[in-house]
Fold this sequence. Notes:
The protein is an alpha/beta fold. It has helices at 12-28, 56-83, 100-107, 131-139, 150-155; strands at 3-7, 31-38, 91-97, 113-117, 144-147.
Amino acid sequence: xxxxxxxxxxxxxxxxxxxxxxxxxxxxxxxxxxxxxxxxxxxxxxxxxxxxxxxxxxxxxxxxxxxxxxxxxxxxxxxxxxxxxxxxxxxxxxxxxxxxxxxxxxxxxxxxxxxxxxxxxxxxxxxxxxxxxxxxxxxxxxxxxxxxxxxxxxxxxxxxxxx
Length: 163
């Protein structure tokens, strides 16, 4: 089945990308793969911290946080899927540890389209396009749709796409 891969990170821009990605999936009769990836930290990568043995209690806390984040992702995606009238779109959820752009590019291999927000939770507020979107545009083997943020961006869409 054809797939539209949609990167999300909990930001408002990722939510806009999710909405647009679901509409793309509907338009092309594709399934959607919703991907949440995060950068590894010493703890999440199972590495010792400050040369001390890795604390099992910390790993348990990280695992619980990941499970809670995955459950919240599924809840919010289902809510947006309903709001967008995209109930016919079959959704697959992927949560992975790794460099975010790398994970998205791997998941998008063979995809119809990769959809990402112009900016997410990155640390450079003045950028028009975030580093993840930039890497995806530069290295993807499928078309990449970078969804701009805000009402001004939505106003520039044709009325038939502006929901």
